[in-house]
Structure to design on (115 residues):
């Protein structure tokens, strides 16, 4: 059974930081492209950041320079470090694991940036 379990969301003031973690089980983690997506109310889900098996990363333009994605294949974890958070970063953040036709999602974690 595949499970992706996110943690680390919460309420933070503008300019603050949060660290999201995703623990994976039931997959050969090191082979998967791991990503973080987000969905704000009334908007489509969008890619925030992704990291390939070789460590190559891809970021949405809106988060470049502020967010960093990393992975630990031994621990089967992917982390999203979010700095200089803005109110427009408010959304539910989802962990994703993708390999060819296999596409798995976590349950999501809420991030709210507000003063």
């Amino acid at each position: 059974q595949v499970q992706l379990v996110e943690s680390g969301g919460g309420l933070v003031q503008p300019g603050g930081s949060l660290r999201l973690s995703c623990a994976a089980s039931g997959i050969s983690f090191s082979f998967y492209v791991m990503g973080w997506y987000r969905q704000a109310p009334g908007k489509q889900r969008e890619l925030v950041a992704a990291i390939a098996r070789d460590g190559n990363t891809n970021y949405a333009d809106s988060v470049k320079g502020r967010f960093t994605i990393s992975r630990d294949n031994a621990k089967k974890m992917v982390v999203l470090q979010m700095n200089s958070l803005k109110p427009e970063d408010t959304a539910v953040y989802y962990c994703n694991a993708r390999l060819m036709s296999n596409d798995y999602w976590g349950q999501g974690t809420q991030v709210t940036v507000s003063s």
User: Anything to note?
Assistant: The two ends are 40 Å apart (CA to CA). The chain has a mean pLDDT of 97.
